């Protein structure tokens, strides 16, 4: 799958901002969770390609981030 196909496959309404995002910018991501993949993009630069991961890989990443933060 190429970048353009990934972007088109995810409707704009599916994206949501990280709960840690603020209105003042900073390090913000948006996530779109689909049945077969989780798509992650930079909320400040939507022209860049989105990163795609399997739901299991995304869950492992988030779990690891939570452990590292505590």
Automatic annotation (TrEMBL):
Q: Which domain of life is it from?
A: Bacteria
Tell me which residues make up the DUF397 domain: 14-64
* InterPro entries assigned: DUF397 (IPR007278)
Please state what the protein is called.
DUF397 domain-containing protein
Query: Which species expresses this protein natively?
Result: Streptomyces yunnanensis
- Phylogenetic placement of the source organism: Bacteria, Bacillati, Actinomycetota, Actinomycetes, Kitasatosporales
